[in-house]
Amino acid sequence: MLGKIHLLEGDLDKAIEIYKKAVEFSPENTELLTTLGLLYLQLGIYQKAFEHLGNALTYDPTNYKAILAAGSMMQTHGDFDVALTKYRVVACAVPESPPLWNNIGMCFFGKKKYVAAISCLKRANYLAPFDWKILYNLGLVHLTMQQYASAFHFLSAAINFQPKMGELYMLLAVALTNLEDIENAKRAYAEAVHLDKCNPLVNLNYAVLLYNQGEKKNALAQYQEMEKKVNLLKDNSSVEFDSEMVEMAQKLGAALQVGEALVWTKPVKDPKSKHRTTSTSKPASFQQPLGSNQALGQAMSSAAAYRTLPSGAGGTSQFTKPPSLPLEPEPAMESSPNETSEQIREK
After folding, report:
1. Which residues form a coiled coil (predicted)?
2. 3-state DSSP helix/strand/coil percent for the chain, to nearest 5?
């Protein structure tokens, strides 16, 4: 109970210490081992998470929470087939689990089987209609399939439940841009910039929209703000940036005449770049518009997953291309369908 109180207060470190002591007194308690594994998973300490979840499965091979968490970890690292094998076992025990169907859907999304992904996510949404993570994922998949009206529908619903998450407004702006509602897209981007102070993708997408609308001065301001965020991330962590993001930023920088190569990374070699790079020697009025935010939407959406995001809190984006917001069992509450980590990832 003391560990659960620390979890309710959001103090994960103290909760872990309490659960570690509990496991020392009761090393075969699968509930304690599973909860401790989930806490380590939420903090991104995968080795210890896998160790405790493995111990839980050793004592109870049918522990569906541990199986679901282990599958989530495999899904995070791109091993979708093995994760689906784990989820098949869970489906026999809890066939109506929203996190289970959410994870299965995002596995299919990672395998680029989008119709199957939507079917599974729709079932998860039917079982948990107020879970914003599932709505986020549905919007993400529809955005990837270029079904922008459906994406707008689900992203708007997700915003109603999670109004302080800047990433949602950014994805909504991409959908609005492709629906040719430029004014509302600008408003959505402005709100995203206001809420998200660390994700450079927000400023990059906003700059692309402004550039395509001929507002070069404002586009340059957003581009410079993006560079500040990138430099800050580079100084604070060894984060890898999405290659599509880097390529688009290089093209935008060249178009705005602020340098073709970005300072935070080496140029990405691309055999097709000769055919796609915007020419800076042409007058501005003859420049081709940069990506319609369609390909850009895929880059930012796949980079939009959060490693850990408790309900109502912010987080730091991953820029590598995770499968986006799969969900994880709630370590604090036994019966809560609203699972904490984005990996029930998130994205």
Report:
1. none
2. 65, 0, 35
State whether residue 224 is helix, strand or coil.
helix
Give the Cα separation of 34 and 49 in Å (integer): 9
- Report the Cα 13 to chain-centroid distance in Å: 24
226: tokens are 């993006």
pLDDT of residue 165: 92
Tokens (6 digits) for 324: 């986006």
Show Cβ contacts of residue 346 under 8 Å, excluding neighbours closer than 6 positions: 133, 136, 304, 305, 306, 307, 309, 322, 324, 325, 326, 327
Distance CA 89, CA 107 (A): 15
Cβ–Cβ < 8 Å for 194, 181? no
* Sequence letter at residue 270: D
Residue 342 reports pLDDT greater than 60: no
Report how far residue 80's alpha carbon sits from residue 72's, in angstroms, rounded to the nearest whole number: 9
Answer left, alpha or beta for residue 78, where phi above 0 means left and psi between -120 and 50 means alpha.
left
Q: CB of 327 within 8 A of CB of 99?
A: yes
Q: 3-state SS string over 81-131? A: HHHHHHHHHHHHHCCCCHHHHHHHHHHHHHCCCHHHHHHHHHHHHHHCCCC
Give residue for tokens 């302080």.
Answer: 164
- What pLDDT, on a 0 to 100 scale, did the predictor assign at position 3? 67
Question: CA-CA distance, 79 to 87, in Å (whole number)?
Answer: 13
Name the residue with tokens 């859907």. Answer: 105
What's the pLDDT at 251? 87
